[in-house]
Amino acid sequence: MIGDYDVAIVGGGLLGSAIAWGLGRLGQSVAVLDEGDIAKRASRANFALVWVQSKGLGMPAYTGWTVRASKAWPTLNAELKEQTGLDVALQQNGGFHLTLGEVEYAQRTELVARMHNQVGAADYRMEMLTAAEVKKMLPLIGPEVSGGSFCPFDGHVNSLRTFRAFHTAMKQLGVDYFPEQPVSSIAREGGEFRLATARGEIRAAKVVLAAGNANQTLAPMVGLSAPMGPTRGQIVVTERTMPFLPHPLTTIRQTDEGTVMIGDSKEDELDDRVLNQPINAVMADRALRMFPHLARLNVVRSWSGIRVMPRDGFPVYDQSETHPGAFVACCHSGVTLASNHAFDIAGMIARGALESELVGAFSARRFDGDATPNGSGYY
Ligand SMILES: Cc1cc2nc3c(=O)[nH]c(=O)nc-3n(C[C@H](O)[C@H](O)[C@H](O)COP(=O)(O)OP(=O)(O)OC[C@H]3O[C@@H](n4cnc5c(N)ncnc54)[C@H](O)[C@@H]3O)c2cc1C
Question: How confident is the model at residue 1 (pLDDT cuts 50, 70, 90)?
């Protein structure tokens, strides 16, 4: 046996490490079991937006949950910085979704109206701006930009540094991290959970499944379900350039280091070792039409990553009725929601139960008897 803990977390990505840090802050003894360094991890492949606009169409509770996360990010940022000295470069002065041409502008206007008309959604002040209004805030846009939507809650961070900050901070709080120890089975015996790994067994009073898309396989071991519908996304990165983009876009952002990231493709293909170059060409072309001066820059790298995606696009947070003390957490937007995971979800797990409002909205029971196809609840 490797050890006995209050909580064992399966998965050391952004979700697992945020929850582990949150539990460590509350004085819980925590073990995080993870795969090896080259495992598929959305947490190393993402676009790093802390993003609110257009989240929650079809599930108003998700809008509120996202607004809450955005508002809690400054506290998370401050706490991580104070504890680790790492600056995760949080910028939250609002973000854009730009449109090219009148058809896209009309489609976006309709989406904004549908979001506003949802009963029970939080007011997150997403509004349409004309091209002239956008130009006042983003002076370098090209002539094809027809306008766009703006949301003052939107922002971005340095996502890899955030990931590092969580791992640094959780270890400082005494959380034990076990890489190269994938969990093969979980059983509940004698009032505790036993998690089997190739190097031995971990025992814990509670278990949190934060293994990304692998939650689909692990959840039934503890009487839960997590129907997933992962997608692949590609990102293109340019060389560094002078600051030109004071607000992030859904598809373009300038990092704190000066590079320009271009992204947001979506494919059903799930091999992250290959790149679909025609998709990169379309993304780059759209970026050039939005900011023509980007044509001067060289692309320095590009990658594809597999999104952790519950089947309808909305988060799954659940607790087991048959295995009390077992929880599952998975979502797209693990950067955006990191503050909620670190503070709210960790607090609920420490207290032993998810709040009924959260379970009511995000339980995987919503999929029972439902063949909902892969959705697009994330944007
Ligand atoms: C291209 C792309 C762009 C994105 N852009 C954004 C964005 O702009 N904003 C945003 O908020 N989000 C974005 N995301 C989503 C975000 O990255 C994810 O929501 C987040 O990283 C999910 O974290 P996770 O910990 O659930 O999953 P992962 O990072 O995949 O981690 C899961 C972990 O579980 C481990 N694991 C799996 N099976 C086992 C097992 N049996 N035992 C032990 N460990 C196991 C894996 O090794 C892995 O370390 C993007 C994702 C992609 C791919």
Answer: low
